[in-house]
Design brief:
Blueprint lengths: L15 H27 L5 H12 L3 E2 H8 L3 H13 L3 E5 L7 E5 L1 H25 L1 H14 L2 H4 L21
Antiparallel strand pairs: 1-3, 2-3
Helix pairs in contact: 1-5, 2-4, 2-5
Length: 176
Amino acid sequence: MPDSKTPSANPLFLREEELRQGIELLFFAYRDFTAEPDEMLAQYGFGRAHHRVIYFVGRNPRLPVSDLLAILKITKQSLSRVLSQLVQEGFVVQRPGTRDRRQRLLELTEKGEELERRLTENQRARFARAYRAAGADAVEGFRKVMLGLINAEDRRRFGSFEGPRAPEPARGQQEV
């Protein structure tokens, strides 16, 4: 039986209070989501910009600097400061591109991979707990809400806005 104190949101008509509660939930979730990694980063004299660089370079080995700038939407000057520190302290390496030697490709070192793993470990666990508690429908609903919050350019990175596509049958196999 639904709790009489919390009315169900009508998806076609969201009141001001429901919208504000969503904003607040996002603020609190982000605060708690970043708290432990912030503590770890502070031990190195790093901040959230360092975390984002480490995370996206770890997810995209051999990432061109230009692509990282597009993902982070920060100035070259801001990235240069953060990236120089990460390279100097041995967390990231820069290599020239294979076709265009002027291109700089970024990769985590073993030290960088270890830090990325430690930074992400708690965040992955938080998502796993929350996803398990919410269930598959809620996870897909959350994905749709998050996709709706980010700009269209970045939304394309995540495929269909309607949800995951069914896998295509292997060659020579028929759909069942």
